[in-house]
Structures are given as structure tokens and as C-alpha cells.
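Q: Could you predict the 3D structure of UDP-N-acetylglucosamine 2-epimerase (Hydrolyzing)?
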Amino acid sequence: MRKICYVSGTRADFGLMQSTLLAIQAHPSMELAIVVTGMHLSERYGNTVDDIVRAGLPVTQRVPVHMDPPTGATMARNVGRMLTAFVDAFEEIRPDVVLLLGDRGEMLAGALAAIHLNIPVAHIHGGERSGTVDEPVRHAISKLSHFHFTATADAAARLVRMGEREDHVRVTGAPGLDGVRELAHIDRLALCRDAGLRTDAPVALLVFHPVLQEAAAAGRDTGIILDALADSGVQVMALMPNADAGSNDVRAALAVRSGRPGMALVTHLPRDAFISWMAQADVMIGNSSAGIIEAASFGTPVINIGSRQAMRERNANVMDVPAEREALLDAVRQALAGGRLPPANLYGDGDAARRIVELLDQLPLDSHVLMKANAY
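A: Sure. Here are the predicted C-alpha cells for UDP-N-acetylglucosamine 2-epimerase (Hydrolyzing):
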């Protein structure tokens, strides 16, 4: 029986991984443990650990950290706090593999803890590029990891060029695409009714997070986006941002405009509601990776703003614009006029969980794996 330990810190990473985690839990030769930290344990961010519990998955350890003030210093200190707590958690859980996704600080802390305890690390979504602080953190996690499950062939090739062993890099597709069509089961009428929005007017799904290096501009940029949508006659379903530096200013800009007609603001949406909004919205706008990766499976037009996803591979539904009024007005006009595109997604075919579970079951976990060195 192989024990797989996944680290989860946000609603986003859990939503992407839920199908894979359920598949691990159901596998007869595996045992799943989940260490929960970060925004999951904060009332301000929706206590989204409850989503994990409702899914019937095990919350094996809880690692609370300080969420305020949301600054780069808090983010850095939390890496240290999580590192210490993860060492204790992994010593108690004794996993055979630590499974990590993406590019956040909790995943970096998980990788650092695991390698010092001689636990192999498997990393999902490595090899991608995005700019901002996410870029070096993602690559740092990759260099601390022993196995790589990538979303695209380009990402896999980049990891090999970075010195990762080619036989330890596998293209699985993005796990967040698994089951998205089935999740999008809530129709537009029900979504708009519950949000207090009209069904006969265009709606944008807005997810905009601050960028660490540009935190001072985050509130201003949010206001520009919301004003451009209002001036375009587009209603808004907006989600509150993550806890990174600059998020208080984003929250304030959202809150001050939340009383407008045609503006709905929520802290958190369950995964099925979020995906349903993505499928039903006339346009998705902001800088979330969901717009880059998942939205193409529905052909939803995406207006990607700023630098947060600057170097990611693009599907045909994405247009990139700066946070400037005229550019945004023009992009909204184009998106509404062009309408929904044919669904096509370079990030995968929705079968990532099966591939990841098969690989986890077959990975060589002998001591040679831990003696990692650059392959070039």
C-alpha cells in the first residue's frame, strides 16, 4: 500500500485536484493523506477546507498560518512556518510520495520538507512559464522534485532542458480539465437568478488576483476593469482574490462597487458553480489560470489582463490586454461580438487523473530516486 500525501493551500489547487485525489483514494493499492494549510483555514477566504471534507476526502493535518497583513513579507514568513509544520506532519504521516501542484509557497515548503526527510516528490504543472514571482517558485519546486506530471508537451520538454531526467517526466494533461463538462451542470437561468443578475444582458466572470511585483497597482487596476465592464453594459460575477500581497486593495475596489446594479460579489464559489459560470458567462476576465487553462474547454472568450499569466501557452480563446480603459473597452467589444469559440484545449483531454494515478502506482521509489542530479 503506497501512501500519497497531497498538500493543499487554496480553493484553486483543491478544485483542480479533486478528481485526482478521489481517484487516489479509490485505488486499492493507495492510501491518501491531505495536509491542509493557507487560505483553506481562514474564515475570510471562505473556510474552504469544508469543500475537502464535503468531498469525502481525508483532512489528515491542518497547518494554520497568518493571513494578515497580505504582503510579500507575510507570504515569505509563511513559507518558513509551513516548512516547520510540514516536517512534523510528514514525520507523523510517513508518506511514500508527497504530491504537489503548481507554484505557490505552500508547495515550495512541502518540497523542501519532503526532500530533507528522504520522501520522493511528484510535481504537477511544472515546466510552465508565467512570469511574476510564480515563475521562479514553480521552477524551484521542479528542481526539488523527483517526478513530473506535466500539462503539455512543451512543459515536459522545458523540464528536460532544465536538467530533469527524461524518464521521470510524463505528460498527463491538466488535472483541472477532468470532468469539467459534467461539473458545468447549472444553467444560466439558475446562476443569474441566484446572483441577482439579469439573464438577458451579457455577464462577465471576473477573477483578478494581485501580482506581488505590482501589488501597489492592484486596486487601481481592479477599478479600471470594473468601470470598463460597467461602461460596456456588462454585468459582473466577481470572486474575491487570493491572499497575496495587494489583495486588500483588490477587495476594497470590488467592495466599493458591489452595490452597483448588475454586480455580484462572492468570497467563494463551489467548484461546480464556478465551472458552470465559466461555461455560461459571455466572457471571462482577469488573470486567473482558469481562464488560460479550463475556459477553452467551453470556448468561453477570455480577456487576460496584465503580467500574471504572461508566458503561459495560449488557447485560441484568450486575448491579452493591459489594465487600460480603452484597451479593455475594445477587448470587451471584440469578445461579445465574436461570441463563444469551438471548444479545443491544448492543456489536455480530461483524462489526467487516470494517468497520474497509474504513474503514482508504478513509480520506482528505491533509494536511487533520492540521489537526484541534473541530467545534463
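Q: Anything worth pointing out?
A: The first helix runs from residue 11 to 26.
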